[in-house]
Design brief:
Elements: H1 9-17, E1 22-23, H2 25-33, H3 46-51, E2 53-54, H4 56-64, H5 87-105, H6 117-122, E3 126-139, E4 145-150, E5 155-160, E6 176-183, E7 196-203, E8 221-225, H7 237-249, E9 257-263, H8 285-296, E10 304-308, H9 326-329, E11 336-338, E12 343-347, E13 350-354, H10 359-366, H11 375-385, E14 414-417, E15 424-428, E16 431-435, H12 444-448, E17 457-462, E18 468-472
Parallel strand pairs: 1-2, 5-7, 8-9, 9-10, 10-11, 13-14, 14-16
Antiparallel strand pairs: 3-4, 3-6, 4-5, 6-7, 8-17, 12-13, 15-16, 17-18
Helix pairs in contact: 2-4, 10-11
Length: 475
């Protein structure tokens, strides 16, 4: 999308007309006067969508609204998450996910006046709009796609006719969608059969088109790496040392490197898989962290370093994962902060959503013809669903809480994952993303799976432009 999307009246009017929103002429003049640029997108919210027009007071409210403060890590409370959880605990996390994603879905201009499923059931027939969570995806004997959609009170079956292009859509259990369609009048030969909806449109939470914001300021780079696996015999120590030395020289792009994110599996751990002790150079996990800290503590103090756990680290395996404990934190210098997994980090007013990425394996398997090389498609599936997870019952364990932390409530400017050990960058609707490179050479398991990682790559994102730079330290 062009950076000049909102540089004149016609383009602003066209944007809102496309969403069925009218503009007060004085509100339009104020947008131009204040050179609001990409912040104009923020005016399109649920309240405006339901009202159908924008007034001067809406623009003034946005201009005067204080910037969201970045939550400190201490404010994220995982204490309510229990190891021995009940059915009700799991229900609460699903309700949290549903309510968050429904709020996003109904901001679509197409989903004003959404009905509850119980209200649709009471209708004799007619045009319907509902939002719910998917389950029981099947195919009828005539080849039509069928699934159940559920809200907090009731459920109903939805059918997509096989001649409808929607029938080719990849639908996943537990994703939240809006459905626009029709409920047919019950015929006498159907007797007491359950009512259904015939879907005409599927509305996902999805990512709204993002503005490309070129500030003209000098670069401010966020560096992204993952899966260091310090302590393993296959840890690429020489490549990692070359990267650290490059950062310390403060030349070329490294002079503008201000943030470095390590998105999980920073050590190899112990007991992660049978016989792992044979693959370790350092057996004790805490000594592995000390070894990692020797490298990280060389990074100049003016660079902020952020470290997140993954499935090899010494926190619980089930997600969401808490940040590292004090014993590990004390090994690192004061410019290092520790993130839980997942986490939305705000840097220079940009949302940097970071997730280690265990669920990528599950999603890749659900993509028709998917392989480890399909990681870009899996990441875009997360963005489209606004959810950093797969369907319940996959290989990614979760611990239920009052809040589902895997929902992308804030639209990311940058989305960072790891775990797969490949390296893939992309852009989905203006959201730059990366599956960050590993710093471990090919393992025996990867050889068995015929998968070759792409190691030793530092990815740089400029917060002041859409620039993405790939720095390879393998040689």
């Amino acid at each position: 999308m062009s950076s000049t999307l909102f540089d004149n009246r016609e383009k602003i009017i066209s944007f809102f007309q496309g969403k069925g929103i009218l503009l007060d002429p004085k509100a339009l003049e104020l947008m131009i006067e204040k050179s609001m640029g990409s912040s104009i997108v923020s005016l399109y919210n649920q309240e405006i969508s339901e009202r159908g027009y924008i007034e001067v007071k809406d623009v003034l409210r946005l201009i005067s609204k204080p910037q969201k403060r970045e939550a400190s890590l201490e404010e994220i409370d995982f204490s309510e998450i229990k190891a021995n959880s009940s059915v009700d605990d799991f229900r609460r996390v699903f309700v949290s996910r549903y309510e968050k994603l429904k709020k996003i879905v109904v901001t679509s201009g197409k989903l004003r006046e959404v009905s509850s499923i119980s209200a649709v059931k009471r209708m004799p027939k007619g045009y319907v709009k509902i939002v719910g969570m998917i389950s029981d995806i099947t195919e009828t004997k005539n080849g039509h796609k069928k699934f159940r959609i559920e809200d907090t009170e009731d459920f109903m079956d939805v059918i997509i006719m096989n001649k409808n292009s929607l029938s080719k859509e990849l639908l996943l259990n537990d994703e939240v969608i809006g459905v626009i369609g029709s409920k047919p009048e019950a015929s006498s030969d159907r007797g007491k059969s359950e009512p259904v909806i015939f879907a005409n449109e599927i509305i996902r939470p999805d990512i709204p088109d993002r503005m490309i914001d070129y500030t003209g300021r000098e670069p401010e780079y966020v560096g992204s790496i993952s899966d260091i696996h310090a302590g393993s015999k296959t840890f690429l120590r020489d490549s990692y040392s070359r990267m650290i030395q490059w950062i310390k020289k403060s030349q070329d792009e490294s002079a503008n490197l201000k943030h470095l994110i390590l998105s999980g599996d920073v050590i190899d751990g112990i007991g992660v898989y049978p016989g792992q002790e044979n693959d370790l150079e350092i057996i004790n996990p805490y000594e592995q962290y000390e070894y990692l800290a020797e490298f990280v503590n060389e990074i100049p103090e003016d660079i902020k370093v952020y470290i997140m756990p993954g499935n090899h680290d010494t926190v619980r395996l089930a997600e969401p994962q808490p940040a590292f404990n004090g014993k590990i934190r004390d090994m690192f210098s004061s410019n290092v902060r520790f993130l839980p997994n997942p986490y939305n980090l705000v840097l220079n007013k940009k949302n940097i959503t970071v997730y280690h990425g265990m669920a990528l394996n599950d999603l890749i398997e659900l993509i028709p013809g998917g392989s480890m090389d399909s990681v870009g498609s899996a990441i875009e599936l997360m963005l489209k669903r606004r959810y950093m997870g797969s369907s319940y019952g996959g290989r990614t364990p979760i611990v239920p809480s009052q809040v589902d932390y895997h929902v992308m409530e804030q639209v990311p400017d940058i989305f960072i994952t790891g775990h797969i050990h490949g390296h893939y960058t992309g852009n989905y609707r203006g959201v730059r993303y990366v599956n960050s490179s590993t710093w471990q050479s090919q393992t025996e398991y990867q050889k068995m799976m015929n998968y070759s990682p792409e190691p030793s790559i530092l990815t740089l994102f400029d917060l002041n432009s859409m620039s993405v730079i790939k720095k390879n330290f393998s040689t």
